[in-house]
């Protein structure tokens, strides 16, 4: 049963109510290890499900186009103030609908179509919006890509600098979706300065670690910072853009009227709640625990013969190269899902297989850390992980079902925020 329950939905649209309850049960019973996912608090859920969804508020506080903003103005200002205080930034825009539109706003603010931009290639752990060809950012801009090094999986800063000086990009992106190591923001800043480029740090994955003091901050190094609010930061689906005061106007104009219409006020409220939660001391413990859990899981997986890109992790994320196991990432991800471990197949750097059936798996520990698992549980998680891959190799469906049952039994002792089985 939902906490709070869904009495109206159950009557008005039982089919949707039933689907939501089923999804809640699924989230409850599985080790959710998709690196970009988490569990939000009941308070964040309540704000997301509020009547603020009824209100249109195009513009910014005290510069709106419709009347009736007496409540929304201070609400948005509260979210902005909390973001500025938590991250120590001069300017925050909390209106982007999600991470991809936030990144598009950075292009709108600092470049023109056809301009050169530099980002980490998608197969190397970058994001689509860092100029990958199939994305609007790759179609509309002249995107050049840097890589990680073949030998150690770390960012190739010699290449970043060479490309930056040769290509003179308007924007250099740092950050990514499959980087298990600390991002060296000062080093990127030095290169951007030398090349006369705007440094954009996309911290979507690690914003919660930064807020919780478990990863260095790009503040003071990057000209503009984008982040989703729903990954390690543990807020609603949404995004924020931070900048120095110098770039505040350009950022705001790019979001509205450049790209978007009315902000999603229910999301703004939920972002404000998540930022309040992230400023509490317990959030620092959560961020530190994420890193401890990832390290413990990495060690346990290495013990079981798994090959980790970069040899381990500094953050919430592991990238596993299955080449030595002789199985592809896709069948492995599907087998793990059947066994109650939810993650995604992923390319590894210099992958020899195809993007839709690559050699790797990506996982993250934010969700299971929110559930309350600690490093003591990680050897067991690694054992289930390893047994699931073995079950795939041996075509052992019984083993998969056994593991799924054991996982659900363990998780019954770790409450899920927002839902419980009654
Ligand atoms: C998740 C992510 C995004 C995109 O966020 P969406 O909300 O899915 O649009 C952008 N950049 C990075 C690095 C991400 O990890």
Automatic annotation (TrEMBL):
Reactions this protein catalyses: (6R)-5,10-methylene-5,6,7,8-tetrahydrofolate + glycine + H2O = (6S)-5,6,7,8-tetrahydrofolate + L-serine
Molecular-function GO term, any one: protein homodimerization activity
Modified residues (N6-(pyridoxal phosphate)lysine): 231
CDD domains referenced in this protein's UniProt entry, alphabetically: SHMT
Enzyme Commission designation: 2.1.2.1
Residues binding (6S)-5,6,7,8-tetrahydrofolate: 122, 126-128, 246, 354-356
Record-linked InterPro entries: PyrdxlP-dep_Trfase (IPR015424), PyrdxlP-dep_Trfase_major (IPR015421), PyrdxlP-dep_Trfase_small (IPR015422), Ser_HO-MeTrfase (IPR001085), Ser_HO-MeTrfase-like (IPR049943), Ser_HO-MeTrfase_PLP_BS (IPR019798), SHMT-like_dom (IPR039429)
Site (Plays an important role in substrate specificity): 230
Protein name: Serine hydroxymethyltransferase
Organism: Virgisporangium aurantiacum
């Amino acid at each position: 049963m939902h906490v709070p329950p869904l009495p109206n939905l159950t009557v008005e649209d039982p089919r949707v109510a039933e689907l939501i309850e089923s999804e809640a049960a699924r989230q409850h019973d599985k080790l959710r290890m998709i690196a970009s996912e988490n569990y939000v608090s009941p308070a964040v859920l309540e704000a997301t499900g509020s009547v603020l969804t009824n209100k249109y508020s195009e513009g910014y506080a005290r510069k709106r186009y419709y009347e009736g903003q007496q409540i929304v103005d201070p609400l948005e200002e509260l979210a902005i103030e909390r973001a500025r205080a938590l991250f120590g930034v001069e300017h925050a825009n909390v209106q982007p609908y999600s991470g991809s539109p936030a990144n598009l706003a950075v292009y709108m603010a600092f470049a023109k179509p056809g301009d050169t931009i530099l980002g980490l290639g998608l197969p190397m752990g970058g994001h689509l919006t860092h100029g990958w060809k199939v994305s609007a950012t790759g179609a509309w801009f002249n995107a050049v890509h840097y890589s990680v090094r073949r030998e150690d999986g770390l960012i190739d800063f010699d290449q970043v600098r060479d490309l930056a000086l040769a290509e003179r990009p308007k924007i250099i992106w740092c950050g990514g979706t499959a980087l298990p190591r600390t991002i060296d923001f000062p080093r990127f800043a030095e290169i951007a300065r030398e090349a006369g480029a705007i440094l954009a740090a996309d911290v979507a994955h690690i914003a919660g670690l930064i807020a919780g003091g478990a990863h260095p901050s790009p503040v003071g190094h990057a000209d503009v910072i984008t982040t989703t609010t729903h990954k390690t930061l543990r807020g609603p689906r949404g995004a924020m853009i931070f900048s120095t005061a110098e770039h505040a106007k350009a950022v705001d104009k790019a979001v509205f009227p450049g790209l978007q219409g009315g902000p999603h006020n229910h999301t703004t409220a939920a972002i404000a709640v998540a930022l309040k939660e992230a400023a509490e001391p317990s959030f620092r413990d959560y961020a530190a625990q994420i890193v401890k859990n990832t390290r413990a899981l990495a060690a346990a997986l290495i013990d079981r013969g798994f090959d980790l890109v970069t040899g381990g992790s500094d953050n919430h994320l592991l990238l596993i190269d299955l080449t030595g196991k002789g199985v592809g990432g896709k069948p492995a991800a599907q087998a793990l899902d059947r066994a109650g471990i939810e993650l995604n197949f992923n390319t590894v750097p210099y992958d020899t297989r195809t993007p839709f059936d690559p050699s790797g798996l990506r996982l993250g520990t934010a969700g299971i850390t929110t559930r309350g698992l600690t490093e003591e549980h990680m050897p067991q998680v690694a054992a289930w992980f390893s047994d699931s891959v073995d079950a795939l190799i041996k075509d052992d469906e019984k083993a998969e079902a056994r593991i799924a049952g054991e996982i659900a039994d363990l998780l019954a002792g770790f409450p899920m925020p927002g839902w419980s089985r009654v």
